[in-house]
Each structure stands twice: as C-alpha cells, then as structure tokens.
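Progress narrative, work stream C.
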Amino acid sequence: MARFPMADAADDIADAEQLVLDELSEAVRISKQTLVNWADRGLIEASLDWGISADNEELRLIHISPSSLDFLRSFAEEYRSDTVSRTEARRLLRLIDRNQVQRLIRQGSIKAKKVKGETRVSVGSVEDYLMELEAPGD
C-alpha cells in the first residue's frame, strides 16, 4: 500500500484549492470522515472550513494543496482496493464492539474475504458504507 506524502513545508498552502468536502468525497470515493481524519492528522496538506451555498446552506469546505490533491486522486483507487483486518475495519468504522463488524459482513453492508485463513475486510466496502451513512436523508 502506498504511503501518504508528509506535509511538505515547501508546499505553498496559499495555492490550495478550496473544494466542497462532499464533492471531493464523491469524486475520490473516500468518506468525508476519512478525509477529515487524514487532514487532522496531517497526512494530507489540507485545512477544513465552513462556507455557505447559494441556497444559504452550510457547506463543509476543504482547502487542499495541489500536490495533496494530485496524490489523493492517484492514491484513492489503490486505497479502496486494499483489505484490512477486522480490527482495523473497526477502527475505520469507529466501532468499539467487535461483533458489529461481523454483523455488517453478514448483512452484506461491508465485504470480506479469506486471505491465508484470515478474514480480511475490503476498504472500499467500508468507505462505501461510511459514505452511505454520511449521505443526507431522502
């Protein structure tokens, strides 16, 4: 799995692109929760902000450096195709109860497969599940 580029002091955050977090999440197919976590931990050079839409609704904005945006676009597909242990899936889902992951697998909400006798969870299915939870109610 590729590693995140550490935020480079030479990157000029003044050149950062301002994007709506929902739109970036959809474009790269990574949940808002994960993108916010990566920004908070400094794994991508980005900052979060709030804005107002033309319809006078609050929007979550992300200011992301061009190099981080390029990396994110290229890394997203590889990240989604990876598999993780059920323990790591619990961390991604922010679940404490280990039985909840097993229930989500049985329900088909997230996908798992056996790798060398160990159950591995698809990161893409975890991200899809998180994005489904984040979607506004219809």
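Work stream C, second folded protein:
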Amino acid sequence: MAVIPRSVETGPKRQSARPAKQSRIVVTTGLALLTAGGSAWLMLRSAAIHCDSLAPLTVLATLAAFLISICFRQMGRFPDRRSRLFLLACLLVAAATLFADFRFVRRYRDFCDSLQQEMRQSAPNR
C-alpha cells in the first residue's frame, strides 16, 4: 500500500489565497464593543456593590480573553494595514475589558463571600 504525501493533491485544485472577508472584522469589533459595554454597565450601574454581578463579569472577562485570541488569529489573515489597525483597536478594547473585569471581581470577591457566609450563619436552621 502506497502512502500519498499530503503535498500532492489528488482532487480538484483549491485556491490557496482566498480573499479575507471584511465582515469578520466587523463582527469581532461588534463583539468587543458589546463585551466592553456590558462590563461597564454591570460595574457602573449604581454606587452600591452588587454581589450578584460578579459571575456575569467573570463570564464577560472570559469572553474578552477569547476575543483577544480571535484578534491575534485574524491578524495573520488580514495583511493590510487598515484591517490590522481595526484588529489592534479590538484587541486593546478586549484587553482593557479583561483587566477591568478582573480587578473588579478580585476587589469585591472576598467582601461578597464573607457577606454571604454571615447571612448563612444568621439564618435560622430549618
């Protein structure tokens, strides 16, 4: 049985240099802005600390990290300068979102955990 190397194509010829779709950059930009807007809304909606907003902020931070990886991957696919600048802007927005979410959750996690523990201890045993 002969092994055919992958470099030899037996099927129809494929175009190796496909033009990249600009809509991917628009979707990435939209997701980065929505993630940043959602984070800002959860953090700044009132002066009080809302312990129930820490879990959604953690999810948004994870989404921001995923968007960072998408931006890096798309930078290899889009060689033109304008597209790379858009992706760099998306990368910076996602990085700022990740950093702000991490700082907010880390600052208030201990406070919310101790508050929840006090509430459990003060509740009557059922």
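The mean pLDDT is 82. No further action is required on this item.
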